[in-house]
């Protein structure tokens, strides 16, 4: 609050009978008036915020018509419109909502859910200048979270081009203090930072997170110089026991957790031995996703001793350079789904290894997704599909080459009846790729065969959906589904045909595909 201005006294040296001279008297009177006006101005300024608040309350539709509970819900939709957690410096920050007016600030501060899932950016360009301030803001944010379970994401948008963990040491101490203070309340912890910071965090933590459910640790490289064990100082009864784990470039001895509750495991940028070590520990895993794994000469040869993983149901492999060596020792009797995304640089698609995994596991595979150069060895693809008769959902995603021709598989699918042993249990078929030289004739035959009533002696497969997604490139011609095929697809009974078209980057940009069957109808005047 501003102090009251004091009256300035003027000494008059003039000798007059009645006291000070006329100018001195006028100055004294002006001083009094100025003090009175300044005091009035201060009173008016103090009234201004309350009047603005009252005006906002009357004019603000949300405040005037909605109860605080509804406003809290609206605020939650806004704050988490871009994801499950929020950066307090972003435009979705609850701090910005609170800056609108006093009523909004009261609602935002009184909604713990707005502050329970936060992000912290560690950026090289401003780490020395503002990290301390941003960590304090983070601390104040979590202080508004009540007693809710907490989520924290600490990330760096790009590699930091320096060879050591510089920055504000006090800020890191504050950050570790936050982690320890709320150790019982952490549910999600996501750390994606340069490798140097993991040893700092590991050394600083005094407690484990016993209620943690989702753990992500993704350093940018392997740390061979600063050995550490995250949660290593925790007691056996206090270590994390997460259900969902996403790790990269780590070894088993660098993370001290309980594996008994893990059901979802993602591992990336590790060699096959490391992946198998983690998988042997996580005996309850139902979803396993190795990504960009490899066989390394720096480690002993892969342990080929077979071991059975009784719970694993979904195997998602992305960018593996040595898939055969990774799966060779595995027996997966509960396996229901395989998703395999081949590196485009890898010409040899591991059809035979997928087949051997399924056959030796004696599993009933229901869903199969294959992505890559699928038709370079079409006979091997057909051999795999003939050996997985239990498959109900088949997805073939062939981004290259653009002239790939899936005529063989459509020819086999067009044959119905007991004489066909090709995918007899298939319910959904999805094909994604180029439709240049596409075998529409076989698709028409497939539609006609399913429209005819199957005799009891020749039951057809239970196919109910055929989804064709045409992916364009810059030189793709503007082709439409042939008119005869459109008519047959529209009249087909027992099976639905969905045909759309998209550009290669539309999925990343979130652009929905065009309904190409509808566009073809308009083109042909149907």
Automatic annotation (TrEMBL):
Positions in coiled-coil regions: 27-54
Coiled coil is among the record's keywords: yes
Keyword Coiled coil belongs to the record: yes
Keywords: Coiled coil
Alphabetized InterPro entries for the sequence: LRR_dom_sf
Name this protein carries in UniProt: F-box domain-containing protein
Taxonomic source organism: Agrocybe chaxingu
Organism taxonomic ancestry: Eukaryota, Fungi, Dikarya, Basidiomycota, Agaricomycotina
